[in-house]
């Protein structure tokens, strides 16, 4: 009888432990890890991820960890192994480069939920987040086209798949049918020397407003524009602090807020796998502070257009964001 009772107690404890493990894997937030390809001190994209991590720490009273320069599969998996020892069960890979490796690691590390950006999440414990950049680009293009004196504006983008680039072009054409728009690509988020060469090419074509749609180089491009007495539309962060006489406004992606949204959903067991999109209506995209150079009546017009877009999903041209 004692042996039987002992067996039942062990079985009950085993079920209890199993239940706790399943609960943790399916939604109970323990600790949180962050991987960034460059640094958290870039003042733009990486910094936003780090700020989001700190907000999660504050709001959920969990430990958080981050690792920089995570750019190859071997270092990424090693980081995951270390995070496992730290009782991490929610991991953010701060970029599109993490989607594929996260899909590969997902089955091997089922206790984690892997979150990346702008990729294709194919496993049950992977999620990819995407900002709907077309709409913010559209409004940025309208402002650039309204301000130009040469009717020539430019974009320095990292990659041709960025939806904000097409949005910028369409918004500029909507605002000014006579506009000329030149688009240059760096094929790299952070290559400042190459971006400055692309800027020199744009300036040689008499462009006077430029949209530097990249992470590690946009500050350098804006500083060069300031030196030349030209103008910019900021990208990712509100970059008005770089000079209101240069930065007309910014198209802002609030990655730090999105981190909070994701952690809240995960802690409630409501974070789905797959690819998720977020826009102005979710409070994670906005326009930045306007320069005094942008007429107040046009500021009001843009704000009204943004409000209408949030309420109806329709841009000023009557179309939905692509």
From TrEMBL:
Residues 30-317 form the ABC transporter substrate-binding protein PnrA-like domain. It is a lipid-anchor. It holds the Pfam family Bmp. InterPro entries: BMP_lipoprotein, Peripla_BP_I, PnrA-like. Keywords: Cell membrane, Lipoprotein, Membrane, Signal. Its main location: membrane. SUPFAM superfamilies: Periplasmic binding protein-like I. It comes from the Bacteria. PROSITE patterns: PROKAR_LIPOPROTEIN (PS51257). It is found in: Cell membrane. Residues 1-25 form the signal peptide. Belongs to the BMP lipoprotein family. This is BMP family ABC transporter substrate-binding protein. It comes from Rossellomorea oryzaecorticis. The lineage of its organism: Bacteria, Bacillati, Bacillota, Bacilli, Bacillales.
């Amino acid at each position: 009888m004692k042996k039987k009772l002992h067996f039942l107690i062990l079985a009950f404890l085993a079920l209890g432990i199993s239940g706790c493990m399943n609960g943790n894997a399916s939604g109970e937030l323990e600790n949180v890890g962050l991987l960034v390809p460059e640094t958290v001190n870039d003042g733009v994209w990486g910094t936003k991820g780090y700020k989001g991590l700190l907000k999660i720490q504050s709001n959920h009273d969990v430990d958080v960890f981050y690792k920089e320069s995570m750019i190859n599969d071997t270092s990424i998996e090693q980081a995951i192994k270390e995070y496992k020892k730290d009782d991490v069960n929610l991991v953010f890979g701060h970029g599109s480069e993490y989607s594929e490796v996260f899909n590969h690691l997902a089955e091997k590390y089922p206790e984690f939920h892997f979150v990346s950006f702008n990729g294709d999440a194919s496993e049950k414990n992977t999620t990819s987040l995407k900002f709907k950049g077309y709409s913010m680009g559209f409004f940025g293009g309208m402002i650039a086209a309204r301000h130009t004196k040469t009717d020539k504006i430019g974009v320095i983008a990292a990659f041709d798949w960025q939806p904000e680039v097409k949005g910028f072009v369409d918004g500029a054409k909507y605002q000014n049918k006579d506009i000329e728009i030149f688009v240059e690509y760096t094929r790299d988020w952070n290559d400042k020397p190459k971006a400055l060469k692309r800027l020199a090419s744009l300036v040689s074509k008499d462009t006077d407003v430029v949209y530097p749609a990249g992470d590690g180089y946009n500050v350098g491009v804006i500083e060069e524009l300031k030196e030349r007495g030209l103008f910019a539309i900021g990208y990712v962060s509100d970059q008005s602090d770089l000079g209101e006489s240069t930065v007309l406004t910014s198209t802002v992606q609030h990655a730090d807020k999105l981190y909070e949204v994701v952690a809240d959903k995960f802690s409630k067991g409501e974070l789905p796998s797959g690819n998720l999109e977020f826009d102005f209506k979710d409070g994670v995209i906005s326009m930045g502070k306007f320069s005094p150079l942008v007429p107040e009546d046009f500021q009001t017009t843009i704000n009204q257009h943004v409000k209408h877009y949030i309420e109806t999903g329709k841009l000023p041209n009557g179309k939905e964001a692509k």
